[in-house]
What does this fold into?
Amino acid sequence: MTVRTAELVMGVFMALVSIGLMYKSADGLAIGWIPGSGPGAGAWPFWLSAGMLLSCLAIIYRWFARATPESNSDQPYIGRQEFNIIATTIVALFFLLLGSHFIGMYFSMVLFLLFYLKVLGGHGWALSGFLTLATPTWLFFFFEAILQKPLPKGYLEELFYPLYDVIYGKGGLYYTLAVLIGLPLVGCIPMAINAFRRDSTA
Amino acid sequence: METIVEPLLTGIAQAFEPINLMMLVIGCLIGLFVGAMPGLGSVNGVAILLPVTFLVPPTAAIIFLAAVYYGAMYGGAVSSITLGIPGASTAVATVFDGRPLAQKGKADLALVTAAIASFIGGTISVILFTLFAPPLAEFALKFGPTEEFALMVLAFATFIGLGGDDIPKTVFSILIGLVCATIGLDIISGKPRLIFFDIDGFLHGVNFLVLAIGIYGIGEMLWTLEQTKGDVQVHKVTSTFKSFIENLKQVRKYFVTTVWGSVLGYFVGILPAAGATPASLMSYGLAKTFSKDPDSFGKGNVVGVAAPESANNAASTGSMLPMITLGIPGSPTTAILLGGMIIWGLRPGPLLFSEHPEFVWGLIGSLYIANVFTLLFNLALIPVFVRVLTLKFTILAPMIFILCVVGGYVPEQTLHDVWLMFIFGVVGYLLRKLNYPVAPAVLAIVLGPLAERSLRQSLLGSQGDVMVFIERPLSALFIGIAICLALYPVAAGLRARRKAAAEAGQA
It folds into this structure.
């Protein structure tokens, strides 16, 4: 698909979205003036959506008139190589979110990171393995213990019971701080060794 | 003058309180890191990290986020110079001369210059901010809902007039942001609006963070993945203490330019549509125009690094002025800060100075301290940042995606928001590829509820007579400027066409 085609498709699509929004704003709500109580609840979104529709029509008109750089460009909207990495990322993100409903966000994260680092990034097992396990662990202690904002755990909530005992039990705060500070430090060690080696060989 | 000095000293003392100081230091470090990463700038850092700040009091939270904002402005130069890729759009102009300097093996000189210029820009703009903010806030106390609405119209008009983007696309972006803000229960009548497919998740509305993280987290990473294809090349930086001192001495070469760049940057930064990117480009252009040796620009002139860096830091402070005093953000980053203030239970606007002086002056005081800390960290940690930049993008990208997903979930604790964020991210990326500006949408979703409320209050007061916006002098002035701004590109276009036609006629 060329940029020119994409410009038209997007313009038409957004025009349809605007019409949908106008319909939805008027659906059971007043869009005009209600004597004594001012503009109806639907008025503001309705007229804004009408404005969206007008600007989409202007975009489509300019497409026909070839008035913008995009409406004149026959370059591909997205290159093949770029498409592969973007599409893979979007699909991986989709499964990350879908998985959060069933196996919870933490386990979903593990699969996402493993896929992204090992399969897509082609990194070694040590690095992929460490980041895959350390990231959700760190986030668990940060969000559950420090912020007290639990993330969704789906059907695997029971697996977290022993960890709850750690963070809510005696000395929980110390364990939490140890993990939050310790894990990033452990992660820095290989980087430091690498940097040292590079310097001594240079 | 005493009305400024005393609260300022209290504010500075407040910034030194342990929790505030800790947040400031962490914020500066994270900001430097975020700014240095290619593709990530202050707005991405602030959007992704805002959910984390619910843990601390509002003053510490704003100090943290302002420090991230500040640090990112310094950090942006690091990748512009060592990678030749701007760390954020605000550091685009730094590439022009920073990159050639790095290619000549003088990356350390460019980095030190960027840090010093940023420091000068930051300091001058914070002083200007301190002087301008209290009187402006006092003036703004006279505003009623009519003036508030007119001011928001003016803010949006600057995007049309000065944004430099396709006008129908800019208007579309503003309107879609405003429409997104209306989803959920109507604040005045209590009726549910735009509840798509009767999904309950829409009843609590679309949190501005969902849109901001979607666009500036997910969308931005997709954009950067496409641009870099997951790989970047780093320039080597060598630095010794002796060369460091030598580099510091070069400051006299660019001091005057930096001061002008700072003042220019500050005032450009105040305008909602302008901000740090155009400020730095303008500053670069002016430095080149007034230079005795304009041909050396673009080939590795330190002045070419100093001018944009001072301006982008000054602009970031400038954009906080309308946010704090008027409740109108001067940039996408400050729009997110403004949204944060609403979440923390503060009402942005001129009353903030009298109702929450500790918050406002704590923030202003922290800017002075953050400026010094960021300079020190920046100079000390340059080698570390350069190392971090050698990380492959395929390591960084998944980490940021994870942070986005978690950050999208935390405010309302519902997966509905995360899905919305994902959709906004992908659609935002696709729109951005077609040159739809996305910043107006983020500003609009933050200002949307305030704009609707002030519009309805004004109309209710005037019994539906829209002339009220023209009858009151201040609002008439704002609307007048807004109309001029909106018509400016049309007039400029016509003039260009007429000129072209005249030239064609002559030929």
